[in-house]
Amino acid sequence: MIEDHPSVLPENGIHPTIEGEPVVQENATGELEPISAGLDGIAIDPSFEWAYYCEITTEIMYRVRAADLLDESLTHDELDERIERYGKKEICDGITVDTAGNVYITDITNNAIGVT
């Protein structure tokens, strides 16, 4: 599992905005604070070779071979080593991959769709 890998953890200091307003969440004491979310966007390419993923408040897209995620013979460290930094992205809350391998992201800050 990759649940403690840096690629799935929130990145400090990046705070999304939508139409100029900060995206906030309620904390344990009921106060509003900038959103801090872990893994959010996940997509697998149509050939089922690569799983792409990111978290909402990071500027990096990652990928790992789907077969590696299913390979129970890999140790935790071996799986971590197979995670690749795929490219830069905008703050987003969703991704998808087309048949040509383009990774599309929802660019929430700019009200747009981007391609990584």
How would you characterize this protein structure?
- By secondary structure, the protein is mostly beta strands.
- It has one domain (6-115).
- The protein is built from two helices and eleven strands, in the order βββββββααββββ.
- It has helices at residues 66-70, 76-81; strands at residues 17-18, 21-22, 24-26, 32-34, 39-44, 50-55, 60-65, 84-88, 92-97, 103-107, 112-115.
- The strands form four sheets. It has a four-stranded antiparallel sheet with strand order 5-6-7-8.
- A hairpin with a 4-residue loop joins β6 (50-55) and β7 (60-65).
- The longest helix is centred in the last third of the chain and has 6 residues, at 76-81.
- The mean pLDDT is 88.
Helix fraction, binned, reads under 10%
Low-confidence stretches: none
Question: What characteristic shape results from the CA principal axes?
Answer: flat
How would you name the oligomeric state of the polypeptide chains in this document?
Answer: single chain
* Largest sheet strand order: 5-6-7-8
Question: How many domains make up the coordinates?
Answer: 1
Total number of helical segments?
2
Distance between the termini: 25 Å
Instruction: Write down the overall mean pLDDT.
Output: 88
- What does the largest sheet look like? 4 strands, antiparallel
